[in-house]
Input
Amino acid sequence: MSARELERIAAEIVGCRSCPRLVEWRERVAREKTARFADQTYWGRPIPGFGDPAAGILVVGLAPAAHGGNRTGRIFTGDRSGDFLFGSLHRVGLSNQPTSVSRDDGLRLIRAYLSAINRCAPPDNKPTPVERDTCLPFLEREIAALERLRVLVALGAFAWDGALRALSALGHPTRPRPRFGHAAEASVGPFVLLGSYHPSQQNTFTGKLTPEMIDAVFERAAELAG
Output
């Protein structure tokens, strides 16, 4: 049941045109491209979730990158953030390979599912509050469809806030509201929410987020998920 429901959600996500600013931006980027990918056909549509329907761990990002997910059609695929993320997932045993370059590269997640708060690449990586709230029901439905889900890993403060909003909408509000931090941990209803700094280049190139730091978060997630 969960796999079929996730497929239905994915199909609805890909066809969504609810946010005019994001539709215009993602499609313009896909037309104009960037020089290093000028010979490629961009996806240029919203990005569905990806991974194991039997996942006990849900990894939540901010939104697709303009020339990453918006180009390849898979979240965290084809950009430096994804290289860092999938390297960690592979080291911890949550993926079958350490790289993610295209939708048909053979990557398979193990006991993990990957999603985001917003499914379209936003200008300057900054969705508006209205755009966030318009997209959040997709995440809520994914959480409900993942029948074995126990742990959510939020990559960055925006994902942490969005995950809390989605869980609250599903009947699991938290008071006081847990604060984001790297390796932060909060019980939310039947779930545990873990925080990690986002694997963006501004964090990984400066050493704010190291491979050892993100590995520790996913090792904890795997431990909690059982």
User: Anything to note?
Assistant: The two ends are 22 Å apart (CA to CA). Strands lie at 50-51, 57-61, 112-116, 151-155, 185-188, 191-196.
